[in-house]
Fold:
Amino acid sequence: MKVLLTGAAGFIGYHVAIKLLERGDSVVGVDNLNDYYDVRLKQARLSSIQAHPKANSFKFIKLDLAEQKATAELFTGEKPDSVIHLAAQAGVRYSLQNPHAYISSNIVAFTNILEACRAVKPQHLVYASSSSVYGGNTKLPFSETDNVDHPVSLYAATKKANELMAHTYSHLYGLPTTGLRFFTVYGPWGRPDMSPFLFADAILNNRPIKVFNHGDMMRDFTYIDDIVEGVVRVLDKPATLALNTSAPYRIFNIGNNQPVQLLDFIGLLEDAINIKAQKEFLPMQPGDVKATYADTNALDEWVGFKPCTPLQQGVIQFVDWYREFYIYR
Structure:
């Protein structure tokens, strides 16, 4: 199968590319390599893909998907069998600083993806949504049937918009689409703007870590391998007509279904690094939510999979990668 994978130099995109290559798929990887975080990490991920034994099945194209003509030409030229759209402007807090980046990357680019899919008709479009769409919801765990009309960040609003846009194209043009609401993904090759990376970097470099809401937060940390397994299983089962809708459209949570207190997570990092963290306790940041917790029953029923990597195991693997990549390079 030929898969067009956007965000291929990103955290999740990198791991999905490796998984697809290992099982024998052909991958067209797309990324604009923006400088939201250190481009050298993105380039290192690409280099790792290109060093893979099956790298001859990987083709990389540098492209800004907000460019309508170039995106249309990409799809008509490559004619992918399926599409995994992971490219986006990520980050809740950054959306307060640079909102226009989110409209360009998450709304304009997604429109271009949908229009390109309309033209070439792939078997399935799988795209990244986010647990952020649950916004200020207080009912736990979060279920796909919950109301998500109250986002608390522009980032979350763009992801909710993606789900609505995908439904429209599924309804109008019969395009099978599946949105995946990821919950706090962590692991090797992770994003430097996320808490596991920020905490490890601070602890190893003798700096205090910033603990928001004075530590009274809970997150459903989900190991990268579980995310990838969910993405690929969903890819292989295109959405069909859902109950009470005329569209081949699905939405699934992918989370560990075992939320932990933030201070307990920090404790696991301290144990893995063998250094006690200096903690700077701060109030809640705008756009943040107090707790995330995924109900994964729908995903399990659809593809027979639930994330299951124990947090302690995942943290150790992340720290081992971090030490090798940054300390001993």
